[in-house]
Amino acid sequence: MSDSNGSMPDWEKRFRAPRVSLPDWAEDAPDRSLFVSNATGTYELYAWDRATDTQRQATDRANGTTDGVLSPDGAWIWWFSDKDGDEFGVWLRQPFGGGTDIEAVPGLAPSYPAGLAIGRDGRTAVVGRSTDEDGTTIHVVRPGAEAPAEIYRHRESAGVGDLSHDGTLIAIEHTEHGDAMHSALRVVRLDGSTVAELDDTEGGERELGLEVLGFAPVEGDTRLLVGHQRRGRWEPMVWDVASGTQTDLALDLPGDVSAEWYPDGSALLIAHEFEARGDLWRYEFAAGALTKVDTPPGTVSGATVRPDGSVEYLWSSAAEPPVVRSTTGGVVLDPPGMKAPRSVPVEDVWVEGPGGRIHALVQKPAGASGPLPTVFEIHGGPTWHDSDSFAAGPAAWVDHGYAVVRVNYRGSTGYGREWTDALKHRVGLIELEDIAAVREWAVSSGLADPDRLVLAGGSWGGYLTLLGIGTRPGAWAVGLAAVPVADYVTAYEDEMEALKALDRTLFGGAPDEVPDRFTASSPITYVDDVKAPVYVSAGLNDPRCPIRQIDNYVDRLAARDAVHEVYRYEAGHGSLVVDERIKQVALELDFARRHLPA
After folding, report:
1. Which residues of 239-275 are buried (b: 16+ CB within 10 A; e: fewer)?
2. Mean pLDDT confidence for 110-128
3. Which residues, including other chains, have CB under 8 Å from residue 360's CB and lie 6 or more apart?
4. C-alpha to C-alpha distance for 280 and 588, rounded to whole angstroms
5. 317-331 pLDDT tens trace
6. Terminus of the chain with fewer CB atoms < 10 Å: N or C?
7. Nearest alpha-carbon partner for 469 in 376, 580, 406
8. Whole-angstrom Cα distance, residue 497 to residue 495?
9. CA 552 to CA 306: how far, in whole Å?
10. CA–CA distance, 547 with 554 (Å, rounded to integer)
11. 547: Cα separation from own chain's centroid
């Protein structure tokens, strides 16, 4: 399909245009890379031999594949095989040049993945797994061993962080303390014996998180790059797990900061996010100096340093489609086929809310003046944020004459730890207070028509949509909820174990321990108050927002003949099939057209 197909609307072209992820390259074979593309109409893994500039589709499944890892020697592609998006399965591997997929870890039963690190020999691996029965277990796989060796087990959530360059040390993120939002770190040997522990606390109560960013890529180097929150935001530091020395970098940058190593271990590539934008910096250990890496204004969604010191990064803005660029100049990957049409830029809006200033991003049709029909497109997570990056969904609404408002409510990342952690205990209700404040601004400023306001979102955004149209029934004309939490207690019963742990952290306990909190924050509590027409879409195999709890909510709507439609599809927490994504957007556009005032 090409740009010559003038009958295809721009919004559909944005979904169909070939897209690629940032390529992951093999540490000891840097000419070998792995990336994700939708070139066939389904998101799949592709092997790329840069030396010969040949690309090969590595996976081919009806519902797509995106979870893959290239072994450091470049010989093997490991990919996670589940059933139709249910996220429950096993790791397979295939030769980089192609061949038969084989089970990567014979002897390990299917599970939810909890991290993977592969040794430089391509065969030694550390595999994390999670099940309802066992909690989290971590296993070491060695060539010639009869079976994988279990080195870690705990009921709470945990995961494999990284394997040291020489393959002797394993960094584990764990939440044995019961706070699934703030991890502690443990470094162990291959036999599971402990080398070092790092566990941040504040005032006797766990409020600070740690994350593994990676071991130094140098033989015998015991430095581990760690993300911490000791100054109220994410920042990197270096922890020498052998000596115990912690080197605080104290970078003078606002917002959240992450990092990865340069290949020789002498510098860091700094990924900086601030007020919905992202850029890159180089930090030199010897000089303690920061140098800006030149990138266009917008958002850098991922970056990596090549062996020659050049940086490849995935960049986009709200107006410009994503592209993989290099600091050497030019585009790294330029898939053939039609190009995604541009959209309109975002405008920044700051609104005073009950918990502080709220950042919102606004798009509207070029030249349009209000009041306009307006879609509040609410992001998922909840620990995520909307940014000045390209998104085909909001662009489709703009093409159809709508203004789009995206709110980085309390719970969003990128605005400090207190902002992210504020949603605890009054789950959902806190976020809706911020959305309501931005809604009031949108109406009073003349942007939004109060009679044509749509509340929409997917995952946590879908949850907030259903909760919002129930708790504030007069505020919204239409609700569009994709893969939502609809009946929180039933969702807790059916969801994957790692999400149960997160819910216990958010609510302060399980449903039988804090029933009033679950009741107050569950959309089904308010379903009989819903006045707006409701559209719900749901994946039949979704382990995050399972189908039974959605059916419970829809049945309650149907029992009182409330205006609603439900669309169920054969996938998990969203679809990797382009045609399916387009179909779902078209259904939402049509539902809004039919139910909003003319």
Report:
1. bebeeeeeeebebeeebbbbbbbbbebebbbbbbbeb
2. 94
3. 348, 349, 350, 351, 405, 406, 407, 408, 438, 441
4. 37
5. 999 999 999 999 999
6. C
7. 376
8. 6
9. 51
10. 10
11. 21
Cis status, amide bond into 515, omega within 30 of 0? no
Sheet containing 24-26: which strands, arranged edge to edge?
A: 24-26, 29-37, 44-49, 54-57
Closest to 376 measured CA to CA, from 322, 299, 442: 442
Cα gap 361→474, rounded to integer Å: 24
Task: Reply yes or no: is the peptide bond before residue 382 cis, omega within 30 of 0.
Answer: yes
CA–CA distance, 500 with 497 (Å, rounded to integer): 5
Tell me the percentage of the chain whose pLDDT exceeds 70.
98
- For residues 280 and 270, what is the distance between their CA atoms, to the nearest angstrom? 6
Report the C-alpha gap between 579 and 344 in whole angstroms: 24
- H, E, C per residue of 456-470: EEECHHHHHHHHHHH
Amino acid at 226: V
Q: Are 79 and 67 in contact (CB under 8 A)?
A: yes
pLDDT tens per residue across span 462-479? 999 999 999 999 999 999
Q: What are phi and psi of 349, to 5 degrees?
A: -130, 135
As a whole number, the mean pLDDT across the chain is: 95
Residue with tokens 């204004």: 297
DSSP strands (E only) in 543-590: 564-569
- Can you tell me whether residue 36 is helix, strand or coil? strand
Q: Characterise 435 by phi-psi region: left (phi > 0), alpha (psi -120 to 50), beta (else).
A: alpha
Cα distance between the two ends of the chain: 35
DSSP string of 379-421, one letter each residue:
--SSS----SS--HHHHHHHHTT-EEEEEE-BTBSSS-HHHHH
What are 70's two structure tokens? 């290239």
| Helix (H), strand (E) at residue 125 | strand 125-131
Cα–Cα distance measured from residue 560 to residue 293, given in angstroms and rounded to the nearest whole number: 58
Rounded to an integer, the average pLDDT of 392-410 is 98
pTM > 0.90: yes or no: yes
Cα 462 from chain centre: 15
Q: Which residue has the tokens 């309390």?
A: 410
> Cβ(182)–Cβ(174) under 8 Å?
no
Q: Where are the beta strands (DSSP E) in 210-276?
A: 210-215, 223-228, 235-240, 246-248, 256-261, 267-274
CA gap 536, 521 in Å, rounded:
19
Provide the 3-class DSSP secondary structure of residue 228: strand
| Upper half-sphere CA count for residue 127 (Cβ side, 13 Å) | 29
Q: Are 377 and 394 in contact (CB under 8 A)?
A: yes
Mean pLDDT within 568-574: 96
> For residue 4, what pLDDT is reported?
43
